[in-house]
Amino acid sequence: GNRPDGVGTVLAEERDRFMSIKERLRVLLEHQITNFMYCFPFGRPEGALQSALVLLDSVLMKDIVTPVSHEEVRAMIKKSLENAALLNYTRLSGETKVEEDLGPDSGVSASRKLEDLIHLAELCVDLLQQNEEHHAEAFAWFSDLLVEHAEIFWSLFAVDMDQVLSEQPPDTWDAFPLFQILNDYLRQDDNLKNGRFHQHLRETFAPMVVRYVDLMESSIGQSIHKGFERERWENKGNGCATSEDLFWKLDALQSFIHDLHWPEIDFAKHLEQRLKLMA
C-alpha cells in the first residue's frame, strides 16, 4: 500500500512482474529505435519517435526517484543507431542485388556491378536525406550520434564500392557518375562534408581524375602535332577538322572538371590550372 511519506510497498511477485514488463518495454524501445526508418516511416505517426526516446528515459530508471544518467541513455541510443546503420544498408544492398553481384561465383560482369552500385548509391542518398528530413528533429539531443550513424552506413557502402572499383578495367571512366552522385550529396551536408567517407571518396577518385586529365592532355597534344601536320591550310570558313576536334576535347575536359565540383580547394585549383595551361 501507499504511505503518507510517499514510500510504497509491493509484493515480491508484483515487483518481479513489474521488472519483467519493464524489460520487455526496454527491448521494444530498442527495437523501435534500431528500426526507426520502418517503425516510424517518414516520421509518422508524428512525434512518436520522440515520445519513444522520452519513454526510454523512464524505462532505464533504476527506481521511480533516481533519474537515469544521460550517458546510459546515450550509450543505448548509440548502440541502436549503429545497428540501424547495418540493418538499413543490408536491406538496401539486398534490394539492388549488390551483395549477390559480389559473390565469388556470381558471374556478373564488372560493368553490371558498377551499374548496380551506382543505383545503390542513389538509394543510399535518398534514404539518408529522408533521415535528415523526417527523423533528425527527434534525435536533436543526439545529433552527433545520428551523424555517426550516417558515417557507419557509408563505411559499409565503401567496402562494396572499393571491391567493385577494383574489378573495373584500367582507364575506364564509367565510375565518374558514382563520384558525382556521392560528392554532390556529401558536399552539401554540413555534417558529412569532409568527413571520413567523403575523404575516402576523394582519395579513391583523385588518381582516376589525374589519369583522365593526363590522357586528355596527351590526346590534345597528339591532335596538335599530328593533326595540323596533315592539314592543307585551305580556307574552310569555321576552321579545320583538327581545330574543331581540339576545341571539342578542351570543352569536354572543361565540362568534366566543372561537373566534378571537387571539394578539396587545392586539388580543384590544380585541375583548373592544368586546364588553363592546355588551353
Give a verbal description of the structure.
The chain has 2 domains: 158 residues; 110 residues, no CATH class. The protein is built from 11 helices and no strands. α9 packs antiparallel against α10. GO terms for molecular function: lipid binding. This is Calcium-dependent secretion activator-like. It holds the Pfam family MUN. It is found in: Endomembrane system; Synapse.
Give a topology summary.
Elements: H1 12-34, H2 36-39, H3 48-59, H4 70-95, H5 98-101, H6 110-134, H7 143-166, H8 176-186, H9 196-230, H10 241-260, H11 265-278
GO biological process, one term: synaptic vesicle exocytosis
Main location: membrane
GO cellular component, one term: presynapse
User: What shape does the CA trace take?
Assistant: elongated
Structural class: mainly alpha
Low-pLDDT residue intervals, each spanning 5 or more residues: none
Order of helices and strands: HHHHHHHHHHH
Q: Count helical runs.
A: 11
Total number of domains: 2
* Terminal residue distance: 89 Å
**Rg on CA atoms, Å:** 28 Å
* Average pLDDT, all residues: 87
Percent helix, as a range, is: over 70%
Give the strand tally: 0
Strand content: under 5%
Q: How would a crystallographer describe the biggest sheet?
A: none
Subcellular location: Endomembrane system; Synapse
Protein name: Calcium-dependent secretion activator-like
Keywords: Lipid-binding, Membrane, Synapse, Transport
Main location: membrane
